[in-house]
Amino acid sequence: MHCTLVGFGLGFLVALQLGPMSLFLIRSTLRAGLLAGGVAGVGLIGLGGVLGWRTLPDL
Q1: Residues 29 and 37 sit within 8 Å (Cβ to Cβ)
Q2: b (16+ CB within 10 A) / e for 4-13
Q3: How open is the CA angle 43-19-26, to the nearest 5 degrees?
Q4: DSSP line for 1-59
Q5: What is the pLDDT of residues 5-44, one digit of tens each?
Q6: Do 48 and 25 form a contact (C-beta atoms < 8 A)?
Q7: CA atoms within a 13 Å half-sphere pointing along the CA-CB vector of 3
Q8: Can you give the residue ranges of every domain in the chain?
């Protein structure tokens, strides 16, 4: 069980990308609470989806 938790923890640290958007999300959560952080997270997911869809080539 200990090895599994260590593996998940290391995987999380490797996958964590601290860019401007994730720092904005962390700041929003710490300043205004979990609900504001969740709303900001959903907004970032939507923005990422729109930008990803927009960069797809026309098929």
Answers
A1: yes
A2: eeeeeeeeee
A3: 60
A4: -HHHHHHHHHHHHHH----HHHHHHHHHHHHH-HHHHHHHHHHHHHHHHHHHHHTSPP-
A5: 999 888 888 877 778 888 888 899 999 999 999 999 999 8
A6: no
A7: 0
A8: 18-59
| Residue 28 structure tokens | 């929003």
| Torsions phi, psi for 52 (to 5 deg) | -65, -40
What is the total residue count of the chain? 59
* Distance between CA atoms of residues 50 and 5, nearest Å: 34
Nearest to 21 by CA among 36, 46, 40, 49: 40
This prediction has a pTM of 0.60
